[in-house]
Design a protein that fits this description.
CATH architecture of the largest domain: 2-Layer Sandwich
Mean pLDDT: 94
Helix content: 25-40%
Order of helices and strands: EHEHHEHEHEHEHEHHHEEEEEEEEEHHEH
Low-confidence stretches: none
Bound molecules: 6-O-phosphono-beta-D-glucopyranose
CATH superfamily of the largest domain: Dihydrodipicolinate Reductase, domain 2
Strand order of the largest sheet: 16-15-14-13-7-12-11-8-17
Distance between the termini: 38 Å
Number of helices: 13
Number of strands: 17
Structural class: alpha/beta
Number of domains: 2
């Protein structure tokens, strides 16, 4: 991709939030210092707090030291970066506050503007309206919307419609940072640049697919946000659905944004909606209770301040099904949870067993082939195959071996998903962002689960922090005679 330098103003609403300090500012710091964005570009941090510019610069430096991976902070680079920082105090709902921003932006009226909304989606409409009334939305403006947009399809539609009153669809970048991860993009490369997978990628050859995103962290400082959303809205409706789409989609006719999005939307629209009976059998929701992670006691979810009465799920497992020709009868088991045993995100494509084993008389079991795509903590792609145990044994013995695809990284430093995506917004490339119909189709499916849960058709389970989740999740897949890939590790 063309990564020529481009100057722009990046305006971060929610600039003092967790995401901004942990991910956005470190990403922009690198883009700036690695000359992906022009050195004249400015980063304008917006927050409700009253603060001087020097106070702001000091705060950003402190947070960069805290959140940049070890060895990535550099005094000189930080000093250069700080020169480009601006600060603006805005109460999102107060239209007169936007005059302060206008003063800053009007220095370069023609420059590209990237408005990054790292706030609750409840504010998106109001911020757009105030930007518009202050004449801050130019034809060279773009807006980045963080997920989740709304709490369900209905609220998502209202928010998106409001944003669309002020920005055109081409100017709206709905971000899902999973799409910025290299291994996730590599799914497209793996599937569509290797012929060997082409004839195998369907219901005749694939038994089932598993998608797991397990985190060992809890909700940290984001309890207020998380408790309103829970694992289904925070992770499944967006990140896991995007992974599912990339695995299940048909080959797009090109890499252009809309061609890829067209194929993803078809998958989302083919997802079987869950009715009350399905909810009971095919979904599990649970909350963690006190346990141990890395030898340390961690409190249960409801032991945290203000969460005593919470009914929010921190773990979800679902058997998803896609009603189309390619995937009919192939379950996609997906799960995600906080405070699990270890951080582990992987996609497992399990192939069917051989039609007949000529080795069974030797007592040799043949394991099914698996393609295991690990996203976190380390990225890898492994194809599990059967192989002869070398040597002179009387009967031929078999063993499982993994062919590993190593992706050599030729860079000194591995860039983050947010760097990739921020740069794409600056370059006006929407390929890795979600279109309105994608978001809505994902909500429609998630709503079928939310509604079932609201009718209490499946109980809230518990799981001990530091484990693989509730036993009900194991039962969910065991009912079909299968097991989770990570259960054995
Ligand atoms: C965010 C969720 O979108 O993704 C967080 O809001 C979650 O709750 C995070 O922790 C996980 O991202 P990653 O890249 O660390 O897997």
């Amino acid at each position: 991709m063309d990564t020529k330098r481009k100057d722009c103003d990046i305006i971060i609403f929610g600039g003092h939030g967790d995401l901004s300090f942990r991910k956005l500012l470190p990403a922009v710091y690198h883009l700036y210092n690695d000359s992906h964005i022009d050195e004249k570009s400015r980063i304008i941090i917006i927050s409700r707090q009253k603060m001087t510019l020097s106070g702001q610069k000091e705060l950003v430096r402190k947070k960069l030291i805290e959140f940049l991976p070890k060895g990535e902070f550099d005094d000189e680079k930080s000093a250069n970066f700080e020169k480009q920082l601006e600060y603006c105090k805005i109460d999102f709902n107060n239209k007169t506050d936007y005059k302060n921003l206008k003063k800053i932006l009007d220095f370069f009226p023609k420059r590209d503007r990237v408005y990054y909304f790292s706030t609750s989606s409840d504010f998106y409409g109001k911020i757009c309206e105030n930007l518009h009334n202050s004449r801050l939305i130019t034809k060279n403006s773009r807006v980045v919307l963080e997920k989740p947009i709304g709490l369900n399809l209905k609220s998502s539609k209202i928010i998106n419609a409001k944003v669309l009153e002020y920005f055109k669809e081409q100017q709206i970048f709905r971000i899902d940072h999973y799409l910025g991860k290299d291994t996730v993009q590599n799914i497209l490369a793996l599937r569509f640049s290797n012929r060997i997978f082409m004839p195998l990628w369907d219901a005749s050859n694939i038994d089932h697919v598993q998608i797991t995103v397990a985190e060992s962290v809890g909700v940290e400082e984001r309890a207020g946000y998380y408790d309103e959303y829970g694992a289904l809205r925070d992770m499944i409706q967006n990140h896991l659905m995007q992974l599912l789409c990339l695995i299940a989609m048909e080959p797009p006719c090109s890499l252009y944004a809309n061609d890829i999005r067209d194929e993803k939307v078809k998958v989302l629209k083919s997802l079987r909606l869950l009715d009350t009976k399905d909810i009971e059998l095919k979904t599990v929701r649970a909350q963690y209770i006190q346990g141990q992670i890395d030898g340390k006691i961690v409190p249960g979810y409801t032991q945290s301040k203000d969460l005593q009465d919470s009914k929010t799920e921190t773990f979800v497992a679902i058997k998803a099904e896609i009603n189309n020709w390619r995937w009919n009868g192939v379950p996609f088991y997906i799960k995600s949870g906080k405070r699990m045993k270890r951080r582990n995100s992987e996609i497992v494509i399990q192939f069917k067993s051989v039609p007949y084993s000529i080795f069974h008389n030797n007592g040799a079991n043949i394991s099914e082939n698996k393609l295991v795509i690990t996203l976190q903590p380390n990225e890898s792609i492994q194809l599990e195959l059967m192989n002869k145990v070398p040597g002179l044994s009387k009967h031929m013995k078999l063993q499982k071996v993994a062919l590993e695809l190593n992706n050599p990284i030729n860079q000194k430093r591995k860039s983050s998903a947010y760097e990739r995506l921020m740069l794409d917004v600056v370059l006006d490339n929407a390929t890795l962002f979600m279109r309105l119909d994608e978001v809505e189709a994902a909500w429609k499916w998630a709503d079928s689960i939310i509604e079932g849960w609201e009718q209490n058709s499946t109980p809230m389970r518990n799981y001990t922090a530091g484990t693989d989740g509730p036993s009900a999740a194991i039962e969910l897949i065991a009912r079909d005679g299968r097991s989770w890939h990570d259960e054995c590790c």
